[in-house]
Amino acid sequence: MLTGNGAAAWGARLAGIDYLPAFPITPQTEIIETLARWIDSGELDARFVTLESEHSMITAAGAAAAAGVRVFSATSSQGLLYGMEMLYTVAGWRSPFVLVNVSRGLASPITLEPDHNDILAARNSGFLQLHCTTCQEVVDGVLLAYRIAEDKRVRLPVIVNLDGFYLSFTREPVDLPGTDQVARFLPPFDALNQGFRAGIPFNQAVAVLDGSTYSYFRYQAHLAALNAENVLAESADAFAELCGRRYAALEAYRCDDAEVVFVMMGSFATKAKAAVDRLRASGQPVGLLRPFMLRPFPGTAFRKALADKRGVAVIDQNLAPGLGGALYTELAAHLHGQAADTPVLVSFIGGLGGRDISQEEFCEMVNITRQAADVDQPPPPRLLYTASELRAIKKMQTIAMQQGGEQRR
Amino acid sequence: MNESCYKTFKDLPKEHLLGTGTAMCAGCGGLEALHEIYDILGEKTVFINAAGCMTLLSIYPYTPFRGSWLYTSMASAPAGAQGVRDAMDILLAKGRISEAEEMETVVLTGDGAAYGMGLSATSGAIERNLNFFYLCYDNEGYGNTGQQTSGATPHAARTATHSGMHGYPGFKKDLFAIWAAHDPCYVATVVGAEPLDLARKIEQAKSLSGPRLILALAPCPTGWDFAPQETVQIGKLAVQCGVWPLKEYRDGRVVHTQVPKIRVPVEDYLKRQGRFAHLFEPQRNETLLREIQGRIDAYWARVEQEGLLESEDG
Question: How many domains does chain B have?
């Protein structure tokens, strides 16, 4: 039994990391504490350093990977945003390393509970992204991430995402791959003769002065990111051979004859799976599509999986004020104009700051999506919230206003 | 510094390691200092650069360096040095590179980053006792963007963002003292116009292991408004008038390495720079000039009082 954080630490340990630059943030701390303990006791032959910020942590991680060692790091939420400048920068360096993000909602208001606004803010940084649903996936995801990141056709850093609390602190049975299995799956880090050595000048991340040169390198990073989908498929085959567990960029759960499918990612997809099972039991043909890989965006896989569906309920655990959900907008953009029979997409926002999504709400989302499919017209995006929640917040507002309200009068 | 191999000017390196034809301005005091420092550090160096003027030294596909280079960001060059140094140590420990392949890690930053945005990362690297060089070329403003006020801008200087009759109302931050308060193994101020003093300090720092911080005053023709051929003279005047004390910190104490016997009046230094022209034209600003001179006199009086004047040789 391992927590999601423990699983992330095990993934790094099995990958035989050389270097762990770190900075603590809830709910990620267990990952770096566990690894630091193993390094202290000699169980893991790596170097640990605490930086003074995530901005510096990402810099050190990228620099060390550029210098030729296998690097792991982890952060969350505000930390990911604090390091945002360097996420873009080190991805541009094409430094292959793995960063775990333990998702947590962003201020304001400040919270410890999860949603995906943090990780999705990094979706255009150049890092590839894997989104985990179980603790098992976290271990396996970290190993797959190293293999993809270090592949010659890719050479990009990868973020492996797990949700705070729901995965980070939840214990689940985890089957740890053996070191011999991992050795066959993940060869030692190959720096491809790059790095900083006396006598071999190596200039990394130099300035460019014109748009043509700049565009060339940006295009290269994009094409490398696109390669990652095939590399994941190959790696997943190799991994399945060794461990018996198979991963795809897009997981389809009971989708074959489904009329309506949920699209969801992260640990809350487990709730969607439970809803699918319940709805199926009551005779409703529903399924779930769950992107394991979000960058590169598995657009072709989505298109194929949705070809014969009537309606799609996209549940975003994130919210771009003034726009809506990221997954919905990306999927809609990708499907637009692709086929005459594109299913109706309905957008739902839920699970912000760890807010639960109940089974009743999943039922209701299917009903709304069905109705939209019947009239071939999507309703405006729905913000999931119940009448009893609204009553509770009104009560809190009354309390909050009591003291201050009287004084201001 | 008894065994310094730099006894006279004749002992200084005869040839420069750093390539020419860079994008720096004519008369750049920062480049002058970098040339001199690089000659002594040698080519087994990897420069970790923070955003600033010198980011334009390496422009794809060219570089003036014989060693290596990594551009990071404005705030995190010391963290880049941490990553590179740690990686090098790991590779050495695991036998993946040889000792002959090892390189010195050198942060190269302007004052904009060093006095402000990068201070936290610098402090962190010192507290972790990172084995690295830290070289700040201090041109007393955000020079690369047109000399806006930075944390290094001196009192009363005119900048692109303080162009009024009184110039910048704030005061230059004492970065040397901030660094020394961390008790690293070495801190020194230098100026390219005093190459012998500079050479001895780099030589000294090179023999040590740990955080070694070099603060180089970088007279800036573009930002300070003087003719490029006057860079050396202005650098010398900065030392002679006492506004730029040449000193070092090691073994827990500060030592002034080159003390002007008679300090020239600071206005000899100020009036040669357009950024201080408003102190003289259209009329002399006696109050401000006295205030600036007074602050320099007070500094040296304190130095004398605290006995920080004698060099190591007594």
Answer: 1
CB contact under 8 A, B59 and A55: no
Query: What is the predicted pLDDT for the residue at A339?
Result: 67
In a domain? residue B117: yes
CA atoms of A393 and A272, how far apart (whole Å):
26
Domain that holds residue B296: 12-305
ipTM, interface predicted TM-score of the complex: 0.96
How many CA atoms lie within 13 Å of A242's alpha carbon, on the beta-carbon side? 22
Chain A interface residues (partner B, CB cutoff 8 A): 18-19, 21, 45-47, 49-53, 55-57, 59-69, 85-86, 89, 195-199, 201-209, 213
Considering CB atoms only, which of A50, A59, A201 is closest to B73?
Answer: A59
* Calculated CA dihedral for residues B7, B11, B17, B21, nearest 10 degrees: 100
- CATH code, domain carrying B195: 3.40.50.970
Tell me whether residue B238 is in a domain. yes
Assign B311 a pLDDT band (cuts: 50, 70, 90). Answer: low
Q: At what angle do helices A299-306 and A326-335 cross, to 10 degrees?
A: 70
Query: What are chain A's domains?
Result: 4-243 (3.40.50.970), 250-388 (3.40.50.920)
CA dihedral over A297, A299, A304, A308, signed as positive or negative = positive
Q: Which of A117-121, A201-205, A270-274 is least confident?
A: A201-205
Contact B91 A66 (CB under 8 A): no
